[in-house]
Amino acid sequence: MNRVESTALSTNPYLFVVGCPRSGTTLLQRMLDSHPQLCVANDTHFITRSIKKILRKQANPSLTPDMVKLVASYRRFYRMGLDQEAVQEASRGCQSYAQFVSCLYDLRGAAQNKPLSGEKTPDYCRQIPTLHRLFPHARFVHIIRDGRNTALSTLSWATSAKGPGKWSLWDQDRVGTCALWWRWQTEAGQKHGSALGEALYHEVKYEGLVANPARELQSLARFLEIPYEQAMVNFHLGKTRHKPGLSAKSAWLPAVTGLRDWNKDMENQDVAVFEAIAGDLLEHNAYTRSPESTDTIVQNRVNRCLTWWRTQKK
């Protein structure tokens, strides 16, 4: 693989797709990755996690051989599709960590004959300040979904080793945990993103994306300053699988409305708990909420969740 020169002026990573997990981040990543000028890696996490302790002390550390090893050995780095030879080649001549990472994304784009290269890692919504310091030019696309539907999806996804299932509160109140999880991720993304301004931060509503993909993607293309391509809407063509039992994600379905419906599928008490914890953020994002519950059981559940939250070090 030929090395692509990466400098402080590199445009890559060009964008980061962020959002609370189970909010449609993979759908949006697949749409954007189908653009002929843009490739978007899927959940590599390595930028902030591989040298987490170093980044806590330095905004953009000088590159060392140990950092290169930490990146290359990070458990999800394989999703970049770059072999060890490419990693070593990328590191040559780079003075800083940011330059090295930029070169990695340049190489990934070149491998797919695309000039622009980015990343989708949902949890990066909490890492926007760190990523912005490393890559001041990078744009952030934050996809937001009704938290109650996000919770329904999370309930069938999280485990003791994944997502909010790792929190000790999970086995006490799963819906309450989902409410705290959604609030934590979404609020952080909006707070950090809005501080960057409209030129670097853009929000996409999941509901709008699945209801009218072309309209939302046209708006997104303007933000990214790339031409709109129908290929983004047709990302699924030739990839859809019709095997029974597959999730929409595994089946590579096109944008589909109504996959989750909290009005039908969430118990009233669970709705009340979720809204008591995150109802104001739902309203802030133009989602309707139910009348406030005065049920004692609901209040006890909410109090237990909020007490747990106040004792945690996030």
Can you walk through the features of this model?
It is a single chain. The N terminus is likely disordered. A five-stranded parallel sheet has the order 2-3-1-4-5, sandwiched between helices. The protein is α/β, with parallel strands linked by helices. The protein starts with 14 loop residues before the first strand and ends with a helix.
Structural class, by secondary structure, is alpha/beta
Percentage of residues in helical conformation: 40-55%
Q: Work out the helix count.
A: 14
Strand line-up across the major sheet: 2-3-1-4-5
Q: Class of the largest domain, according to the CATH hierarchy?
A: Alpha Beta
Q: In CATH terms, what is the fold-level topology of the largest domain?
A: Rossmann fold
CATH fourth-tier homologous superfamily of the largest domain = P-loop containing nucleotide triphosphate hydrolases
Distance between the termini: 41 Å
State the major sheet: 5 strands, parallel
For the record, the CATH architecture of the largest domain stands as 3-Layer(aba) Sandwich
Task: Please mark out the parts with pLDDT under 50 across 5 or more consecutive residues, or reply none.
Answer: 1-8
Strand content: 5-15%
Average pLDDT over all residues:
94
